[in-house]
Amino acid sequence: MDPLKDFEKLDMxxxxxxxxxxxxxxxxxxxxxxxxxxxxxxCDQATYEMLYHTLFxxxxxxxxxxxxxxxxxxxxxxxxxxxxxxxxxxxxILPMLLKLLRRDQDPQILEETIRTLAVYNNNDLLEELxxxxxxxxxxxxxxxxxxxxxxxxxxxxxxLLDIINGDENLNDPTKECNISTILAVKHLxxxxxxxxxxxxxxxxxxxxxxxxxxxxxxxxxxx
Length: 223
Hints:
The protein is mostly helical. It has a domain at 154-223. It is built from 13 helices and no strands. It has helices spanning 12-25, 31-40, 45-58, 63-70, 75-84, 94-103, 107-117, 126-129, 138-151, 155-165, 179-188, 194-202, 209-222. Helix 5 runs parallel beside helix 7 and helix 11 runs parallel beside helix 13. The longest helix has 14 residues, at 12-25. The protein is elongated. The protein starts with 11 loop residues before the first helix and ends with a helix.
């Protein structure tokens, strides 16, 4: 008997009991139906949250199920699967994550995908992530910088310095620096490089208050 049959018609207590049992018994055969229910968003909020946590548990390290979820059109389903692929890493899912990065336009999907890719610590990701340093979305830029730093690639510090030095407002005391410049300054604090420290210290009296604050934040991280 299918425990999820007519699930949406049951009262919330029955729904919770069924989901708890599926979670406790690690019933992975229920994943496709759970994904459908999660995608439909027709349950009460409490049930919906329980669905999320049940799926999160069952999807752990499950390449086949994660692939199924990532192929769904609903943003919230893909977000769940992207987050689940972060820890533990699921190397087999990397091609699908890169496909999302190249083709999806949703800011949430892009940000979460980049955050997940950061744990893969793969130097080959450098070329994929660099374009997102110039995205219009501040959260995506920050996620890309964090992911690039996580690769440990020696080029990253130079890339951040190039972004800063390439800002045409950098040396104009009447203008504010670009947001990508401010974020690059902050992220230099996470880069273990004497050149980065020297650069930060050389700009500590910059006229842009946001730039100076970013310098202070970055230098504190280097202490």
